[in-house]
Amino acid sequence: MSIAENLAAVRAEIAEACAKAGRNPAEVKLMAVSKTHGPRALAEAFQAGQTLFGENKVQEWEHKRDQLQSSIGEDVAKVEMHLIGNLQSNKASKAAWLFAGVDAVDTIKVAAKLNAVAAQAGQVLPILIEVKTSEEESKHGVVEYALPGLMRQIVDEMDGLEIRGLMTVPPFTDDPGGARPYFAKLRELRDNLRTEFGLPLPELSIGMSHDFAIAIEEGSTCVRIGTGIFGQRGRVGMD
Ligand SMILES: *Cc1c(COP(=O)(O)O)cnc(C)c1O
Questions:
Q1: Which pLDDT score, from 0 to 100, does residue 89 have?
Q2: Residue 33 in 3-state DSSP?
Q3: Is 237 a residue whose pLDDT tops 50?
């Protein structure tokens, strides 16, 4: 199957999951996760109408962006690329320039660097806070008890950032239903923070290729799909 065909199939599955959950498909964005795939794959998805993308490394997008520009020209400005991977504070300033949104903010240090760049440019950078909803060592994100404090500091001190909502990556389970409690937890945290802060916090970024239907049932507003659109990721290099 081509990338365009995969995209059409994923869009249809999202619509179906929305119908099943009694939700409006317009509430669920599809983010195409292009990490490890080359600029040609991105161009193909873009030409099939996809504009929202996710990458997990700052430098990878920096390189690919130039290559993509050579193939699609000025249209590269229409690509809405979000950073969905863990961000080290030494790369945060660059990230604030390169990405339309940063969806994995989990420390005050990173937030402060993003804010400095955005505020200086007179812009407001949309961010999501990544929450660590599981005990898994490998997972990034702010732990639950530290979440309100992190939010408070951003809201009070950082005019260059707009917190749009929360994201999480649950532990992988063969049964996609295994992710449900983590998704439900994130929604519950979001609902509580809405009340506490009086902010809309519209975004819940949950759901990947194997569990997005469950995530939509649990309130996802953005599913992040890599494999389901671009195929398997190679272990080395870019295909
Ligand atoms: C890689 C990645 C995805 C996409 O995963 P697939 O299983 O390929 O759909 C989604 N979210 C994050 C944070 C990722 O790193």
A1: 93
A2: strand
A3: no
pLDDT of residue 236: 47
212 CA from centroid of ligand 1 (Å): 11
**Residue with token string 């975004």:** 203
The total number of structural domains in the chain stands at: 1
Residue 137 clears pLDDT 90, i.e. is over it: no
67 in any annotated domain: yes
CA 129 – ligand 1 centroid, Å: 16
- The Å distance, Cα 93 to ligand 1 centre, comes to 23
Percent share of the chain, pLDDT over 90:
93
In DSSP terms, 203 is beta-bridged to 165
In terms of residue numbers, what domain contains 114?
3-13+28-229
pLDDT digit string (tens) for 118-136?
A: 999 999 999 999 999 998 8
Question: Identity (one letter) of the amino acid at 139?
Answer: K
Which residue out of 50, 224, 229 has the highest number of ligand 1 atoms within 8 Å of its CB and is therefore the one to mutate?
224
Residue ranges around ligand 1 (CB below 6 Å)? 33, 35, 56, 84-85, 169, 208-209, 224-228
Closest Cα to atom 13 of ligand 1: 84
From CA 133, how far away is CA 225, in angstroms rounded? 20
Closest ligand 1 atom, CA of 56?
A: 15
> What CATH number is attached to the domain comprising 58?
3.20.20.10
Closest CA to 44 of 12, 79, 89: 79
